[in-house]
Structure formats: C-alpha cells, structure tokens
C-alpha cells in the first residue's frame, strides 16, 4: 500500500471516494450515516457517532440488525495527530441460555440447530454494547445518542430500495416457515399493512421507539435487569422459550485484546474467537508468502481461492468461544503451521480438510472524528431479521445466532449452556507500523472474512483507494471446490479458474457478496478517505 489513497485500478470505480478532515461516517443507510455526522457536529466523538448510527440502523435496516442482536467493536483512541494511539476490542456477543443444552434440543426433535423460533435465540448483546462504549469512551449523554433513532422509529422513515427487497424476501421465507404464538409478533411488527413495505413507502415502529427510549433512559439496564427484561422473560416462558431473566441479568459485554496478522506493510486487526476474524488473518498469512499479484492474474486469484478455502476449513473446525477451543489462536497463526498449510496450495483446486496444529447478513459502520479517533462497529441479528421471535409490544426482534452451534459432542463448537457460538460478524482495522490507518468491514455472514481479504489485497497489492476496493467484483468460497463469482469478473479469468479445477458459479445477483465500508486516515495530513458499498443503499456523511 503506497499511500492510504492510492488508485491504480484496472476496474473503473462506480463512484469517487469521499475525503474529509474533521469527521466521517460510513454506513449502509443514508439516514443512519447522516445521524452519525450530526452527532459529530454536536461535539460528539467517533464513539458517540458509532452508537447513534448503530441505533438508527436497527430502525432503518431491520433486515440486518436489531435490538435483539449481537455487536462487536474495534475502537482506536488517538494519542496524537501522527496516528499513534491504542486499539480496544469489545465483544458484545451473547451466550446460550442456561437451560439450553444439546440434549434439550435433541429431545425437542431436532437433529441440528433450527434457524427459527426460540431454540436458536442467544442472549442479545447489542444494547449493552452501546451503553458500554458510551460509558468508557463517549463524550455526549447516552440519551442524546439514541434520540435520533427514537425519533425515526416514532415518526417513521422512507424505506430504501435494497432494504425493501430484503424485507420482501424475508417475509416470503417467514410466511413459509413461521407459525405459532412465538413468531406471530414478527408479522404484526414488520408487516403492519399485511405485507413488507415497498421502496419509497413510509414505515413506523412505535413499539421500537418506546423500547429505544427505555434503553436510553436506563443506559440499557431496562433490557437486562428491568422492565424490558421482565417482558422478554415472560414471553419466553409463555411460548416455550429457553431464555430467562437470569440469563439477561448476568450478561456483561467483554473488553478483549484484538488479534492481528501482518500482510505486506500493514497489520489487519480482528476480534478474537468466537469471531471468525481469525479466518481472514490465516488467509492473509498464507498469501503473504507469495509476491503481490495483479487482480487479473490467474495465478494470484487461484492462490487467493485456495488460501481462503484452507483458512475457512480450519476456522469452521476449530473456532468457538476461546475457552472451549482445542487449538490456540497463536498455533493456527504460527509460521510453522502456516507454512505447512501453504505447501498444500498447488496448481489445481483442492477439496480442503482441517489441518492439525500443535495440540493443545448484519450491518457494518465506520466512524472517524477530527481528533483521529476511529471506530469499526458491526451488529447483527444473524440471519436477516433473526429468529422470527418478536416480543409483543416492544419491536425487539430476537437474533438466531445459536443456529451456528453444532450438536456433535466432539465438535469444538458443540452447544453447551452458557457458551458462545462461532460468530460470523467481524469488524476489521488496519494499522501500519503501529499507527492507525482505519476501520474496514464487509457484512454478510460467511462472506465477511472473504470480504476482508479481498478489500485488503485490493488496497495493498492493487493500490486501490477505499471506494475502488469496494467497487471491485468479488468472489466467495461456497464449499468444496465451488466458487461463486460476480459477473463483472472477466470471462477469461473465470475460464482460467475452471481449468484449474474450481467449480465456478457466475452470479448476477450481488446481494450475496457482502456490503462494506472503509475509512482510511493519512497519518501525515490527518485527512480521511472513505469508501462505501455500491451493492446497497450506502452513504458517507462528512463533517
């Protein structure tokens, strides 16, 4: 990466990057990014802006996140204008309820973790994430930060095109799969006129406004140890759920030490397991052993695909809550193990299997302020709207993160009471020689580490600016030797991959290839350069 704003690109960028000095907010919805920008204008810092933006996204993008979901954050707190500072990690994911066990799920007739209903519901961490970030690093009053989201929910907003399409898709899925009292509230809340709202129509959620107000007034205490917790507990008991008030009352988000890997002259930072950021780090470590390649180079693309397959196979075998992992992070990232795995990358595609080290969708946003503080923040209900469970009268859509658990007792990620599952949502952050470059993220389930790797290599190896790096067509490993690839990739490159044994699946629908945001800061000038996702209704707001 020659500078944060390099732009030697073989692909025309769909839009120009944005530049600013005093602050920037990149998010997947214009309403939300503008709210974050307004918070900066009121004297808030990057953390305040992230909280306000995240709260607004639960209103305007319920297809990807909600009050009943999880969150993670990487927070850079600047010490000077030269990019020196410290990176902090916040894990606000929740565990399985104390009464939810592998045996209980099997006794209920399930051979694997279901996707809908109460069974996959884990303790939500998002409200606690907002409150904890505000308590430790915020400048403005917490209620001030949530006020714009409350107003949006109460007064309403215009539904954007991409959200309308996702809303309609999820409604169709829910009508086929949901029934019974536990999930009836989803239709009451999110299809109040009998159908998903169309693009350009007005939508309100007064119940959610009241819930956000209670969270704002109590700094999330109501959600975990107050009236909202009581309502969640009562509805769970009434409709056969496992979640209890005691699970909520004992919940606390956790400050964690971020993990990193060096790639060329930069360091990519991720949240440690149970997040899947480790997959991105392993893939970049594998690729760092080869010289940089142009984007249209068949050999370079083949290596990327093989490196991602190897890293993901290990991740799916070993990643779970860190205290339950039988393989250590440092062993999976060690030189010896990476070299062993790299030796498997040959001229032809392989069907990867996990190695043996030493024994032992979602919304993403990025914010930055005039002082050099930056936040990489992600929150999710896991699968679209989540489990389909909505607590009546609250607008709280409960996540279905527990779907990620295995019921195999020999698997590292096997379900256990009070355990956190393999987590797909991962914020990323780039530094160079210990100085901040900035936040990046690509939301979208298992696409996320793949998106991190592609955006980083686009910027570092191809010299693309943040916007061009996001605009460039993407690929994703889909299991075995199957690779999904966006139709904008040159046909000659697709054929070259097929000749190497990859089963190429050209996709014309870009919704499955992730939606990202990037903000980079030039340590010498303090100027920010931001890019936002062309595959959704994204926007950057600057101060």
Automatic annotation (TrEMBL):
Taxonomic lineage is: Bacteria, Pseudomonadati, Pseudomonadota, Gammaproteobacteria, Oceanospirillales
Would the keyword Transferase be found if you checked this record's keyword annotation?
yes
Q: Which GO terms describe its molecular function?
A: transferase activity
Query: Species name for this entry?
Result: Modicisalibacter ilicicola DSM 19980
Per its UniProt record, what SUPFAM superfamilies does this chain match? N-terminal nucleophile aminohydrolases (Ntn hydrolases)
Q: Which UniProt keywords apply?
A: Transferase
Name assigned to this protein: Gamma-glutamyltransferase 2. Threonine peptidase. MEROPS family T03
InterPro entries for this protein: GGT-like_enzyme, GGT_ssub_C, Ntn_hydrolases_N
């Amino acid at each position: 990466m020659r500078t944060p704003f390099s732009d030697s690109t073989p692909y025309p960028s769909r839009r120009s990057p944005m530049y600013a000095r005093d602050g920037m907010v990149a998010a997947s919805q214009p309403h939300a990014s503008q709210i974050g920008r307004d918070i900066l204008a009121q004297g808030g810092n990057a953390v305040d802006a992230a909280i306000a933006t995240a709260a607004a996204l639960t209103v305007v993008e319920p297809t990807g996140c909600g009050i009943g979901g999880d969150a993670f954050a990487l927070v850079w707190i600047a010490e000077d204008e030269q990019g020196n500072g410290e990176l902090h990690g916040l894990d606000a994911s929740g565990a399985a309820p104390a009464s939810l066990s592998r045996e209980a799920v099997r006794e209920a007739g399930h051979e694997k973790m279901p996707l809908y209903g109460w069974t996959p519901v884990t303790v939500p961490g998002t409200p606690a994430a907002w409150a904890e970030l505000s308590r430790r690093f915020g400048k403005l009053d917490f209620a001030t930060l949530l006020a714009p989201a409350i107003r949006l929910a109460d007064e309403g907003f215009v539904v954007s095109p991409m959200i309308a399409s996702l809303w309609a898709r999820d409604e169709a899925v829910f009508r086929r799969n949901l029934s019974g009292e536990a999930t009836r509230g989803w239709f009451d809340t999110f299809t109040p006129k009998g159908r998903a709202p169309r693009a350009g129509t007005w939508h309100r959620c007064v119940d959610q406004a009241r819930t956000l107000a209670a969270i704002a007034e109590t700094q999330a205490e109501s959600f975990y140890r107050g009236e909202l917790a009581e309502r969640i507990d009562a509805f769970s008991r009434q409709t056969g759920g496992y979640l209890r008030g005691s699970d909520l009352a004992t919940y606390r988000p956790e400050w964690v030490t971020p993990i990193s890997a060096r790639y060329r002259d930069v360091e990519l930072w991720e949240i440690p397991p149970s997040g899947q950021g480790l997959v991105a780090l392993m893939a970049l470590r594998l690729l760092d052993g080869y010289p940089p390649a142009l984007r249209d180079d068949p050999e370079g693309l083949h290596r990327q695909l093989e490196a991602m397959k190897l890293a993901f196979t290990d991740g799916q075998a070993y990643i779970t809550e860190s205290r339950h992992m039988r393989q250590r992070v440092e062993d999976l990232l060690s030189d010896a193990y990476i070299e062993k795995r790299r030796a498997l990358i040959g001229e032809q595609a392989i069907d990867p299997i996990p190695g043996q080290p030493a024994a032992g969708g979602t919304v993403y946003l990025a914010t930055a302020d005039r002082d050099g503080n930056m936040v990489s923040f992600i929150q999710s209900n896991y699968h679209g709207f989540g489990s389909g469970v909505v607590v009546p009268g609250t607008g709280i859509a409960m996540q279905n993160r527990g779907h990620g658990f295995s019921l195999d007792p020999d698997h590292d990620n096997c379900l256990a009471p009070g355990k956190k599952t393999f987590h797909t949502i991962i914020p990323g952050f780039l530094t160079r020689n210990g100085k901040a470059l900035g936040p990046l993220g690509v939301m979208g389930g298992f696409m996320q580490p793949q998106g991190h790797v592609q955006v980083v290599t686009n910027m570092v190896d191809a010299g693309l600016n943040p916007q061009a790096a996001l605009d460039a067509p993407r690929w994703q490993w889909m299991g075995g030797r199957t690779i999904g690839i966006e139709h904008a990739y040159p046909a000659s490159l697709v054929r070259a991959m097929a000749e190497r044994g990859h089963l190429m699946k050209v996709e014309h629908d870009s919704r499955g290839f992730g939606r990202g945001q990037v903000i980079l800061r030039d340590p010498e000038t303090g100027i920010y350069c931001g890019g936002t996702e062309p595959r959704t209704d994204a926007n950057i707001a600057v101060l």
